[in-house]
Amino acid sequence: MGWPGAGKAGVMNQRQPQSSGSGPRPPGPQWLDEEEQAAWRAVVAMLLLLPPVLDGQLQHDSGITMFDYLVLSALSMSEDQQLHMTELAALANGSMSRLSNVVKRLEKQGLMAREPDPADGRFTFAQLTPAGLSLVKAAAPGHVAAVRRYVIGPLTKDELRSLSTIGTRIRQGIGRQHGKSGLFR
Q1: DSSP assigned state of 111
Q2: DSSP string across 51-99
Q3: Do the beta carbons of residue 156 and residue 105 sit within 8 Å?
């Protein structure tokens, strides 16, 4: 499978008539133009290269995955170091299923615990343990250094603001498309 728009000999370079306004789109594939293709390739490269670098740093230095870190970090920054599981899934950008599996593992390691919400038994609280807090505090400096090295450092302030806007817009578009707040559950 090639890049979107990289069809048969020269297809990606064929110009398609653009529909004007709200009229119907021309039939057939809507190939990416050169500018769109360059942007898409940059996004794909970032999606494929950045997560393993950040995940690898955390695993090497702290023995946790990037998702583990997002969960523990969200809890460490919350009031009383506890959150409802649904809220924690949203903050970690994960599904409830994925979060439940990770929380089971982190519970076995003594890094967090779950307990029913005493005010509403339909909800479950995820609670950071002292061991979990120690681990996330120890992991944070190396993780922040990696984020600065690979994401923040190469960008100007204007580019950083644009990246934030772009990331938010794409996440919101995914949420609208799937009828959720940007999460796949």
Answers
A1: S
A2: HHHHHHHHHHHHS--HHHHHHHHHHHTSGGGEEEHHHHHHHTT--HHHH
A3: no
Q: Which residues of 83-95 are buried (b: 16+ CB within 10 A; e: fewer)?
A: bbbeebbbbbebe
Neighbours of 58 (CB within 10 A): 20
Phi, psi of 31 (to 5 degrees): -60, 150
What is the pTM for the complete model shown? 0.77
Contact between 94 and 146 (Cβ < 8 Å): no
| 39 confidence band (pLDDT: 50, 70, 90) | very high
Residues in contact with 185: Cβ distance below 8 Å, sequence separation at least 6, in sequence order: 89, 95, 96, 97
Mean pLDDT over each residue of the chain, to the nearest integer: 86
DSSP strands (E only) in the chain: 82-84, 112-116, 124-128
Taking each helix axis from N to C end, the angle separating 130-147 and 66-76, rounded to the nearest 10 degrees, works out to: 120
- Return the pLDDT at 174: 87
